[in-house]
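Case study 2.
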Amino acid sequence: MLAHARRMQTYRTMYVKFLHDASMHNRRAARASFDTCGILVNEQERMSEPSPTIEGFRAAFRRPALTFAEIAWRWTIGATTAALFIFYCIEFLDTLPVTNADSVLLSTRQPMLVGKAIAHILRGSLNRAIFAALFAALALCLLWIIAASMGRLATVRALLTYFRREACETSATIVSRSTNEDDVSTKAYDAGKPRPIRALIDLSFLRAAVFLAMILGFAGAAILVSSISSKANPRSGLSVVLFFPVAGLICMAGWALNWWLSMAGIFAARDGEDALAALSAAVTVSRERTASVCAVSIWTGLAHLVAFSIATTAVSLPLAFIRVAPSRIVIAGIILVTLTYFAVADWLYMARLAGYVCIAEMPDALAASAPMPAPQLEPAQATIDRDEPILSDLPNLAVEM
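Prediction:
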């Protein structure tokens, strides 16, 4: 965008020179200035549209606080889930009755005897485990919906403020240096519109419903393909072969729905509309700017794939020293590499989100930076003024010179 601002400044300079030459009746210089202005206008029209991918990565670099905010709410949900799972396992195992006979069977370390002991210990406790797991999953889902909605509202509004400020600088709009981001953010949104937190909560709830539908779809696919195999005619191989294509279709459908709902969150936070209107706006922008949306998704996806490959390679290094180094150091190294990968993945997600916001704001930015129209030159006089003296009318001029 700064390069675009410099091109606009050059265009204005040549435009002023053109007006000066035209006012001084220097038509040859004016024509040259006019041609230069035409070249600059064509270049500006060809290069005025910024790259959403580059602008997204630039925004992620220039605004690291957004990545830290994204990491904060995501890792809070992850840490809460891990702590709740550990607490659930400890409390559930503490309620299981273990008799002396079960202890003897477990001490034998024979697979058959250990299996019978575990089956006897877990008898009658499956209902409690399922109800506790459902209650924990419901609480975590509610926590994720609230945290994701508030986090998305904060990050999208910060990105909107950033890109609108960049658009003002690109279009050479006079903005006071003392104007802070709070003032710009306040002016960017209409106070009369409803708060978008309701729409974001609805979209997050729909995303959670899509995840639950995927789980039920996997269970239904497993039941469907298992009906092919029977005790009289077992076809376990065919069941597995049929399960993977169905599971792939379920994953593709779930991913597409989740992507649309995530994209709609940008327009819900920007426009303050309801969930259906935000989803309609996301579909419209994606249809009108398909190339830009695909470019942002592909490049960030490739960067994520590279980060995942590097992380898996780095995790294998501590595992190679598991027989030599202490187990605590190996586990600490694996945890460190895993957390680093999660941080990079969140940064790439923020870059992708910034790219989508740039695509959503691009029409307004381009409209604000449209060049001024160049005036038309007056046509040159085609006839000769016979009253104007020329050299042939002044015979004594050569003698005087």
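The two ends are 59 Å apart (CA to CA).
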